[in-house]
Specification:
With 279 residues, the chain is of the alpha/beta class. Helix content is 49%, strand content 14%. It has two domains: 7-211, 2-enoyl-CoA Hydratase, Chain A, domain 1 (Alpha-Beta Complex), CATH 3.90.226; 212-279, Lyase 2-enoyl-coa Hydratase, Chain  A, domain 2. The protein is built from eleven helices and nine strands.
Amino acid sequence: MKKYSCFDVIFDNQLAHIILNRPEKRNSMTTDFWKEFPEIVSDINQEGIIRVIIISSTGPHFCSGLDLSIFQSDLLEINKEKANKAILLNNYIEILQNALNILQECRIPVISAIQGACIGGGLDLVCASDIRLGTKDSYFSILETKLGLVADIGTFPRLVKLIPDGLVRELAFTGRNFNSNEAKLSGFLNNVYPDQKSMINAAFELGKEISNNSPTVVFGCKEAIKFSRDHTTVEGLDWIKMWNSAMFNMKEVEESFKAKIEKRTGNFDNLPKKITKIN
């Protein structure tokens, strides 16, 4: 198994557990993070064997966001260039955005299990997840505001679709902490747990429940939800109609009914290995 500097990756049957492993640095997002994270998720997504990804971290805090020392040094390097600095900065931001976009593009459901602080880039990460669980001491912040920046890695395009518009504006304009109780009431967190252990257990229980269903159907649900969120009701209905017309599999329907009657787990095919290049 490949070793990473920012992560531990554990495979448990059809579940993949990606663990941020720099607790002494509050799991800040270093240069290695931005290289390793999309590689890990992309590899899992490509193989199609894993049915659920669970993301968690070590220590008292989930993630303190972008490593500011790295960010400052990168900005200094960009500032030294004679080329158009705005274009270079645009390219730099795009790299960071794409590293987290991988979660939304992934065919596999992603559960984030969050304890303590989840701020800045950490918030961007969990906003791109499908399901968010938190501990009672978890909290979130659009910290960029207090650093003289407009959050640009993914918070606003996603958060405004997850919680009320007015609340997004308040959190953005103030940069204040958004606690677990408020996050649960607003629908940002699916559930809140007393401690990290019970939260991780719940994440795995949820992951196993999801993995019992057809991976193709779960993938279809993820795509349908994503499309429907960003389009009109009529467009969403048309998209789902086309998906089912193309992807309907009577064999899986029969297996689903049979497994339910026999009170067992269904026997479904994994997703096919994703084609990433033409040989």
